[in-house]
């Protein structure tokens, strides 16, 4: 199977993945059809679909089916029809932001910082727990921009523009009280029940090994690869912070990690020295995600306590 997924993608490959994604979103939402779920489904579909185009923009993977397949399977495992609107909107805004920041045209990028600021504000208003993405963008801007002050001004101008517009609308409709949810606090009690996260622990181990291998062979990589991998790794750490601090039992938060994890893991599989290792690693990922998906149907708590 790994050899099949190692083939180069054709011009119609990404549209086929997007069509499959569309059918998956439709089926999951049809199982629990509500108008609210339709809006959530539209934003989540748009955000996840943008992710397919972000692979080429980031440029860390060969143009093969492997990262797209892993990305699709991760979405299948973590997505459900009753997705929170805040998570759905942030899937869209995050993908759009990554697409802009990963462009190689610096002239185009600086013209879009106003849009990036607006997207950050929209994402924050719908899901305040994603505030850490703002710092990810600021760090990327500081490391890559030649006119840091001007671009930070553009970023915050776009952010403030959306926030002020939102406050103005809320005031006009008579909602002038402060919502404390816009200052998300971390619960002092940490989660102790990790079921069904046990099932995807092999994926976490593979991810750690992939990152460790990257740093062990860091000097052998080109400056471009180092920069792009650091970009993906920084985004992964940002989303991992959000997941650890705020996920709780809302496992749909794991969708924020789908894109960077699929990039890192697919690179790790491609760099394994033996073919059987690549094949075994791929099937471990597939089986782990299937078990996670069907975990609500499994009575494994009893087995885990034996």
UniProtKB/TrEMBL annotation:
- The answer on whether this UniProt entry bears the keyword Zinc reads no
**Matching Pfam families:** DUF6427
Keyword field:
Membrane, Transmembrane, Transmembrane helix
> Do the record's keywords include Endoplasmic reticulum?
no
Q: Which residues cross the membrane?
A: 12-31, 37-56, 68-101, 113-139, 151-174, 194-215, 227-247, 253-273, 280-298
Task: State the source organism's domain of life.
Answer: Bacteria
Q: What is this protein called?
A: EpsG family protein
Q: Which organism was this protein described from?
A: Riemerella columbipharyngis
């Amino acid at each position: 199977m790994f050899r099949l997924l190692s083939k180069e993608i054709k011009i119609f490959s990404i549209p086929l993945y997007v069509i499959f994604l569309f059918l998956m979103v439709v089926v999951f939402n049809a199982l629990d059809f509500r108008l609210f779920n339709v809006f959530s489904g539209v934003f989540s579909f748009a955000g996840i679909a943008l992710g397919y185009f972000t692979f080429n923009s980031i440029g860390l993977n060969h143009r093969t089916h492997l990262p797209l397949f892993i990305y699709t399977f991760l979405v299948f495992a973590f997505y459900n029809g009753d997705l929170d609107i805040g998570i759905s909107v942030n899937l869209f805004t995050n993908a759009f932001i990554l697409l802009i920041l990963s462009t190689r045209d610096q002239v185009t990028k600086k013209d879009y910082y106003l849009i990036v600021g607006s997207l950050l504000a929209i994402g924050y208003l719908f899901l305040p727990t994603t505030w850490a993405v703002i710092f990810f963008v600021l760090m990327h801007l500081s490391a890559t921009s030649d006119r840091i002050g001007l671009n930070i001004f553009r970023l915050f101008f776009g952010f403030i523009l959306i926030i002020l517009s939102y406050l103005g609308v809320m005031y006009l409709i008579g909602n002038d009280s402060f919502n404390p949810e816009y200052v998300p606090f971390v619960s002092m009690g940490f989660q102790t029940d990790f079921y069904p996260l046990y099932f995807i622990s092999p994926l976490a181990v593979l991810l750690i090994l992939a990152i460790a291998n990257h740093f062990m062979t860091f000097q052998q990589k080109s400056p471009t690869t180092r920069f792009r991998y650091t970009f993906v790794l920084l985004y992964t750490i940002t989303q991992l912070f959000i997941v650890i601090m705020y996920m709780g039992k809302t496992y749909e938060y794991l969708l924020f990690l789908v894109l960077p994890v699929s990039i890192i893991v697919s690179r790790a599989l491609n760099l394994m020295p033996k073919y059987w290792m690549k094949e075994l690693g791929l099937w471990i990922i597939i089986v782990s995600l299937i078990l996670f998906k069907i975990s609500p149907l499994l009575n494994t708590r009893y087995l885990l306590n034996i």
